[in-house]
Amino acid sequence: MCPPTIEPQNRTGYSKFLLLGLSDDPEMQPLLFGLFLFMYLVTMLGNLLIILAVISDSHLHTPMYFFLCNLSLADISFSTTTVPKMLVNLQTSSKSITYSGCLTQVTFCFLFACLDSLLLAVMAYDRLVAICKPLHYLVIMNPRTCCLMVLLSFFFSFLGSQLHYLMVSQLTFCADVEIPHFFCDPSQLLNLACSDTSTSNILIYFVGTIFGGVPLLGILFSYYKIVSSILRVPSSDSKYKAFSTCGSHLLVVCLFYGTGLGVYLSSTVSSSLRKNAMAAVMYTVVTPMLNPFIYSLRNRDIKNALWRMINK
Question: What is the pLDDT of residue 96?
């Protein structure tokens, strides 16, 4: 229910929401602007280099690097959904975002977060086939199958994002909507809505569990099969080589799901909404920034491709 002194406004007639950001301290604004601008530029540069390296080097035209290229594209899009608006608000000392802009953020944030999750599951399956069925790898992971897996990942992510859009667009808000976050987080919008949100709460958490939990189960199952297969290999060198092909992917999975779980736990333990927003920085900004470094520093093929591209 809304406070008795505030009349609910029609959701289609409301023009602006306020994103309170990470801090109200004016002295912190330039520091936050510089920090997030730096992280955003590093994210863009790192992921673009990965994409260019994969496209330009014929040695990297394999299923694993095809999926990595799509993951980098998803990471660029994920960061671009939230960070530029935050930078504009920090630079102009404005906290406003339009209702349509807020719905756009809700839609694309879920789209690219879900796409990240599904692509990581697809990459885990790719490693499973490469290690457990090496002789049939190129037959199973043919170009048509790889493209179909990426398209299906995008389709299911798009479906989930549209469900989020429909649920949030049905909410009614009071006169002043102050979101204690740096982007339009659906859970915060549900807390601030004046209309009944019980059904929307159940649906959003159900959809989030399905699109986050099912890919995670797929990843865990893939690595269970991979570890079982590697342990049967007698040679220690062969074991190390097999594990090394999974190292970068496993680190990215731990980073993505670890930060996501950390945000969830911080929201249940901490009552400070600003602290929850700071925790969300980890998976919306830091994770997409670190992914290219993890893959390039631990992967000789990527490093060689980058050097060849730079030296051209």
Answer: 85
Between 287-297 and 236-269, two packed helices, what is the crossing angle to 10 degrees?
Answer: 170
d(CA 108, CA 110): 5
Q: Using alpha carbons, select from 81, 264, 94 the residue that is nearest to residue 187.
A: 264
What ranges make up the beta strands (E) of 162-286? Answer: 178-179
State how far the Cα of 63 lies from the Cα of 289, in Å rounded to an integer.
Answer: 23
User: What is the SS3 assignment for 297?
Assistant: helix
Yes or no: say if 280 and 34 are a contact pair by the CB < 8 Å rule: no
Question: Strands, DSSP E only, in the chain?
Answer: 16-19, 96-98, 178-179
Instruction: Tell which residue, 167, 190, 162, 164, has the closest CA to residue 177.
Output: 190
- Cα separation, 192 vs 74, in Å, equals 29
The reported pTM is 0.88
Q: Would you list the DSSP string of 157-193?
A: HHHHHHHHHHHHHT--B-S--EESSSS--HHHHHHHB
pLDDT along the chain (312 residues), means of 10: 41 65 82 93 94 88 93 94 91 84 91 94 94 91 96 95 88 79 84 78 81 91 91 79 82 87 64 69 88 81 80 73
Q: CB atoms < 10 A from the CB of 67, how many?
A: 25
Three-state SS at 42:
helix
Name the DSSP class of 154: H
* Packing angle, helices 287-297 and 63-92, rounded to 10: 140
Residues near 64 by beta carbon (within 8 Å), at least 6 away in sequence: 123, 126, 127, 130
